[in-house]
Write a structure and sequence with these properties.
Strand content: 35-45%
Shape: globular
Radius of gyration: 12 Å
Oligomer: single chain
Largest sheet: 4 strands, antiparallel
Distance between the termini: 20 Å
Strand order of the largest sheet: 1-7-2-5
């Protein structure tokens, strides 16, 4: 079950991309290549978020302005993502 009211101590603006992960790497099917994952995505503007998970799978989420998605992700795809002002949140 996701933790309620979790706090984060690092935030990085998300640049949507179909190939480049949050940490600047690109997805690889090689299990030894691990991208740095965000623990949540804050969405300042409403729309659709196409989240990419560490295993390379994707899912579409419809969000409202100000919503935080408690997802462990490596990237937000540019294609089909319409939400804006997104921030990757980390607890480091």
């Amino acid at each position: 079950m996701p933790q309620v009211n979790k706090t984060y101590n690092r935030a990085v603006a998300i640049t949507k991309s179909d190939t480049v992960n949050f940490d600047g790497s690109t997805y690889s099917a090689n299990p030894d290549t691990k991208a740095i994952t965000a623990e949540a995505i804050y969405c300042g503007g409403a729309g659709v978020v196409v989240a990419v998970f560490p295993d390379g799978s994707t899912a579409n989420f419809t969000v409202t302005a100000g919503q935080t998605l408690p997802l462990t992700t490596i990237r937000v795809n540019s294609t089909s993502t319409t939400a804006s002002l997104m921030v990757a949140l980390y607890e480091v």
